[in-house]
Amino acid sequence: MTTTRFAPSPTGYIHIGNLRTALMNWMIARKAGGTFILRLDDTDPERSKQEYADAIQEDLEWLGLTWDRIERQSARLDRYHAAADTLRDKGRFYEGFETPVELDLKRKKQLNMGKPPVYDRAALALSEDEKARLRAERDPHWRFLLDQERITWTDGILGDISIDAASVSDPVLIRGDGQVLYTLASVVDDTEMGVTHVVRGSDHVTNTATQIQIMAALGHGHPEFAHHSLLTGPQGEALSKRLGTLSLRDLRAGGVEPMALLSLMARLGSSQPVELRSSLDELVEGFDISHFGVAPTKFDAEDLKPLTARAVAAMPFARVKDEIAGLGVPDDKAAQFWEVVKDNVATRAGMADWWAMMRDGATPDVAEEDREFVAQALEMLPPPPYGPETWANWTGAVKEATGRKGKGLFMPLRKAVTGQARGPEMADLMPLLEKAPKL
Ligand code: GLU
Q1: How far apart are the CA of 292 and the centre of ligand 1, in A?
Q2: For 300-304, what is the mean pLDDT?
Q3: CATH number of the domain residue 262 falls in
């Protein structure tokens, strides 16, 4: 059974980069009729916060990315310690005593000598006496002893990968203070939860190599891996620093529609075109991980605007009925109101401005040379209620009286009535006005 997981750390809000990972894993599971697990990687007790765990769930629910199971690593610490015991028994787990400062110094020395900063395994050379003495001074951290051979796998996106384990430091799996680190927890969970496919960012490729060895040391095979390219800004600049402003909640607050966001992120960086889809099912149907490329993927938040406008325009009245009622639009006008404004808003929230205009009247936009003409025209318009014929009758009468026609007739009147040069068909809009337009 296909099983995937999205494994954010609840140490902040999830952003557009996380969404790419979540969505790919979600689509694989849904396409296969499998299981999608939301796994909260919360082994860091200081940085993990309940408020973020809640927010992650809220953000995924907003998008409709539902999960079949939720797991928390903090509830599974005994499993990780059991795995650590197994590794210890197999001679694949060893204590290190270097402080972070000492390790940093070693790395710097290696780099200065032009060597890769790989841990030198000095701890393996310690005698039992030395270890006993050091243990009295500080708590050891625990490393996995890599087999120094090539680690290979066929990646769902990157193709055949081969990494020389000798070029990688033995990963620390448990810190001196006892905190279980991501690599161990992730390996144990992926194995015990039956995860069959892991999609994550290409910044995890080296982790994957070590995880494959740890899984093997624990007596297991490994899931299929796919590493997607990382997102950059529109100019190819690193996005990592700006990701904070691209949180899903900020995008939502800015009026971005779920289907707009999903339609973009489900295809961005793939060989398939980005088009607004109408449902998650439609997205899942056309999804294929092998269509995604290796090159960094440019993300431009501007692309969400036309997609959002289209998603709004495509919304049936029933979806926005309550919101429209909330604005105070009378029930008998509500459906017509939506027909008139839906193609003329950037976001759903934009309809409030249209209603305010219809209810209170616009601030007219009148060019100096049109002032007299508009004043004369407005005098010819009776007070509301208006009907579907009002615009034609009124402009017909104004044309007769002033001799103006075409754009010179219609545009100043549109701008006087709505305060804008663009907008819905005036014939459709007039019946929604609650007040006679004034200069
Ligand atoms: N918590 C890890 C992260 O957010 C999960 C990586 C993974 O998918 O294994 O980077």
Answers
A1: 20
A2: 96
A3: 1.10.1160.10
State whether 307 and 342 are in the same domain. Answer: no
Q: Which of 9, 198, 230, 240 to mutate to test the pocket of ligand 1 (most atoms within 8 A of CB)?
A: 9
Average pLDDT over residues 59-65: 98
How does pLDDT run across 380-423, given as a tens digit for each residue?
A: 999 999 999 999 999 999 999 999 999 999 999 999 999 999 99
- Whether 78 maps to a domain, the answer reads no
- Measured from the Cα of 190, ligand 1's closest atom is 9
Please name the residue ranges forming H helices in 329-432.
Answer: 331-341, 351-360, 371-379, 390-402, 406-418, 426-429
Assess whether 338 and 425 both reside in one domain: yes
pLDDT in the model for residue 394: 98
Q: Report phi then psi at 15, rounded to 5.
A: -120, -175
Confirm whether 290 is domain-assigned.
yes
Is 335 in the same domain as 403? yes
Separation of alpha carbons 379 and 377, rounded Å: 5
Expressed in angstroms and rounded, the spacing between residue 7 Cα and the centre of ligand 1 is 5
For residue 123, what pLDDT is reported?
98
